[in-house]
């Protein structure tokens, strides 16, 4: 009994299989904003090193200090 060849015998079929269109991933669901007041969101933000060092120099709680500074800025702006 002969074993099947390791390579496809039809080069056209092999080329078609290699260049099949890629399925697009499903779109991410639209996230509704939280309805509860003062709920914190987990986000990723890029901050300059000098700014980060300033808020981290007093130790733990630096994220709260950044949040407080942003709240003060919003209050002063509006």
Automatic annotation (TrEMBL):
| Superkingdom of origin | Bacteria
Q: This protein is called what?
A: BrnA antitoxin family protein
Q: Which InterPro entries match?
A: BrnA_antitoxin
Q: Where is this region: Disordered?
A: 1-33
Identify the species of origin: Rhizobium loti
Listed Low complexity bias regions: 11-29
